[in-house]
Amino acid sequence: MVVPAARYALLGGSGTGTQGSPEGDGRVELVSRDQVYPTDFGNTPPVTHFRISDDDGRPRSVLFVRPHDVTQATGRVAQSLALFWLFREAGVRRIVAESGTASITQHFHPRDLIIPHDFLDFTRQHGGQLVPGAAVSMREPFCPDIREALWQRSRKFAADKATRVFNRAVHATVEGPRLETAAEVAALARLGGDIISQTVTPDVYLAREIGACFATVQMVLNYAEGVRPEWDFELLRAIVREGAEELGGVALDALLALPDEPGCRCVSYREPAERGEVPTAVAT
Ligand SMILES: [Zn+2]
What we know:
CATH architecture: 3-Layer(aba) Sandwich
Bound molecules: zinc ion
CATH class: Alpha Beta
């Protein structure tokens, strides 16, 4: 099967998962929909390939993936490995993600948008790198270029929706699928976590391994256990139904606003991953 050439990827979470896919966006030219690719790490999840013009009118080739199945943690890691193998072969250089999250602190409220600058990983280490034994630097794990683009788009979204946006937070990834106890949440807060979900890793370090920039915008859906007396399941459902469905649009608009050439140093932090693994595909 021919690997598509694409420099950009969009990882959908709560927003685009609700909305279906960016193909409903009138600006999108669909190339292929829900294609499953065989890789060295098994089949990818369904991948949609589309083209769209950036803010300067130039075409961008984008691979879009719906939320991973997080009910099986090991399955999620395996899917990420297959997906990032595909991204590497496709020549993906920038990855924008979005998803829902829970607040560990009382400072963030449901419907707030959070653009994390760092992360804590409490998932099991699967040794699941694309290149066995590859070590990558985690300096600036979230690309400052993409975070800035997400910040600008999120501020506009927050003003329209009368909510708030924060561009500094530590995201804690937990294994799942069960949710955390109040004692675990309190421990994560003492360790420096601000928000918590089952996303972000391993994607953030697989992106670094293939030399791609990565950042994410997360919408607070609820408070983590014990942060408030009770978290409100009905409110969470209402946010997913009403607000989060537009989060995918924020991520896509940020992707289109990125300058053609990265001004960041992300790729230089990719050490000492195999130099022979640099993507060769040429794409717009
Ligand atoms: Zn970058």
